[in-house]
Structure formats: structure tokens, C-alpha cells
Design brief:
Layout: E1 14-18, H1 38-43, E2 56-58, E3 72-73, E4 79-81, H2 82-90, E5 96-104, E6 110-120, E7 123-124, H3 129-132, E8 135-136, E9 142-144, E10 161-164, E11 167-174, H4 175-183, E12 190-192
Parallel strand pairs: 2-5, 7-10
Antiparallel strand pairs: 1-11, 1-12, 3-4, 4-6, 5-6, 8-9, 10-11
Amino acid sequence: MDEEEGDDAPPPPYLVWRRGQLTDGICKTDEPDGVPSWRDLDEGKPLRATWPDSVTSTMSARFPRDTGLADALYNTYIVVSARVKSFLEEAGVPDVELLPLAICDHAGAIASRDYFIVHPTSIVECLDDEASEAERSKDGTVRGVAQLVLRDEALPSSHPVFRLARWPSRIIIRRDLAEAMEAAGLTGLGFLEPESYDGLI
């Protein structure tokens, strides 16, 4: 995960979970094909019961030499391997659907069926608007922040992975869980320190 030097204050207990890493040799994948509802996927509505087995994501033609597979792949969404799925299930992380996704190579052939979109369905109202310097639309939707600051007292102890209310495309993960995933040797994961996050990735 990306860390910056700061004062002696302890780091916040959460990180932003982002969409993998741009690593040479590891494939970057296009937006999934065959998604039944983009809006529900973006907003965290439950989808597993109606999710088809035919959803695919193809290795990006922009990176024709990158064909390797990691435990997390760069994509519009958080795409992870069966190893990450097993880790989250064994850790007992609640309210996170893992939606099956097949990865296709540049020619369109199936490279792996052992990938999943991480789809949290828990949405939490915990953004500190003032400290984050948040910009909101008239309907209350968050448009961006100068830095991401959450209200510690509003963080759910029972849900280490969740979405932000009024900004559900942003997924938060508890720091200790993220560190445990990295310590387990899971590769390609993208976690970002909240003070470095401006909402652009």
C-alpha cells in the first residue's frame, strides 16, 4: 500500500481499496461485458442472485504484451482472484458479494474463470465533509474531496469492507484487513492512504 511520512499521530484505521495496479507484465482488463445492471453494480445493490455466469473481461488491447495474472487485476472495478475470494470468506467479511468473472486473453479466449468482482453491499454514512473539503451536488452526491477523512465514531466495527454513502463507487477497507491480505502474499492489490486520495482514481 502507498504510505507517506507524517507526524507521530497513528494512521487512520482505514484505506481506500482501489482498482489494482499498473504493473508491467500483468494484464490490464477492459470494462466487464455482460453486466446485467451497471447502476446496481456501481451503487452496491445486491446482484449475486441474478448475476450470470457469462460475464467476461478482456485483456486490454492497449497493453498487448501484458498477459500475466495476479490476485488483483487493473479494471474499472475491483477484480480479484479465487485466492482473494477465499481469504475474504475465511475472514468472515460480511455483506461483500464476489461476482464471478472470466478473464479473456487478447484474442478473446478464456484465460481464467477464477476471478470475481468485489461488490460490497453495505453503505455507511461516515464521510467528514469539513475535514475532507468535500464537494457535493445539489442532491447530496459527493463530487470530490481534497483528502478523504472519515468520522472514526461512525465506522462500522462489524464491516471491514463497505461503500461510502452518497459516494458508493468508493470502497473502504479496514487497515488491519488490508495488511493481513498483503501479509498473506496476495499480489496486485491496490490500497491507498486516505490523505492521498482526491477522488480521481
